[in-house]
């Protein structure tokens, strides 16, 4: 019996082990973000860290647009699809939009035309261009940023301290 919690010692030990595994997994995850932009986007904590970084550069609208498109693709209702498409277009795509993403005029026009028959793919081209821009521009800066460097130092020091304790 654990005197602090009043739980059976096995339960306490199991919970502590689970916490250590979760920390080890998240440390490993941080290191995997540098392998590819896809690895970063697959990780909820990676997306959060990247979003925080983009805010410091005043360019989080690109990621917000990409995430809105990902969510949009999951929409099944035709009515919701049309209203979400218009909201995304007005917020991110149209000229002078409050959070306008950096895409060329041709892509903007294609996307505008796609809205007339809104389908789950109507933002694909604009989303792909925005993704490429983030991957080629923002992602390399994120990897070099002090915040990511700090995260990797913590992750590597955690994994080395783990190895020395085993």
What does this molecule look like?
With 166 residues, this protein is mainly α. The chain is 75% helix and 0% strand. It is built from eight helices and no strands. The protein is elongated, with a radius of gyration of 21 Å. The two termini are 26 Å apart.
Q: How do the strands and helices of this protein lay out in sequence?
A:
Layout: H1 9-32, H2 37-42, H3 44-56, H4 60-73, H5 78-93, H6 105-114, H7 124-144, H8 146-165
Helix pairs in contact: 1-8, 3-4, 4-5, 4-7, 6-7
SS field, number of helical segments: 8
The total of beta strands comes to: 0
Oligomer: single chain
Spell out the helices and strands N to C. Answer: HHHHHHHH
**Structural class category:** mainly alpha
Largest sheet: none
Task: Name the descriptors.
166 residues; disordered C terminus; mainly alpha; 75% helix
What's the gist of this structure?
The chain is 75% helix and 0% strand.
């Amino acid at each position: 019996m654990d005197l602090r919690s009043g739980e059976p010692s096995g339960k306490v030990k199991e919970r502590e082990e689970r916490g250590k595994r979760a920390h080890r997994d998240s440390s490993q995850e941080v290191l995997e973000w540098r392998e590819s932009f896809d690895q970063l986007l697959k990780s909820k904590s990676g997306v959060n860290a990247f979003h925080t970084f983009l805010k410091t550069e005043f360019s989080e609208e690109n990621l917000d647009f990409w995430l809105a498109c990902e969510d949009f693709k999951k929409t099944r209702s035709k009515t919701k699809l049309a209203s979400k498409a218009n909201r995304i277009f007005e917020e991110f795509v149209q000229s002078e939009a409050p959070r306008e993403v950096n895409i060329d005029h041709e892509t903007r026009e294609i996307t505008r035309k796609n809205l007339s028959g809104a389908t789950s793919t109507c933002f694909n081209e604009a989303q792909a261009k925005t993704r490429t821009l983030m991957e080629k521009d923002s992602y390399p800066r994120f990897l070099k940023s002090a915040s990511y460097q700090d995260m990797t130092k913590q992750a590597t020091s955690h994994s080395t301290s783990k190895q020395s304790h085993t």
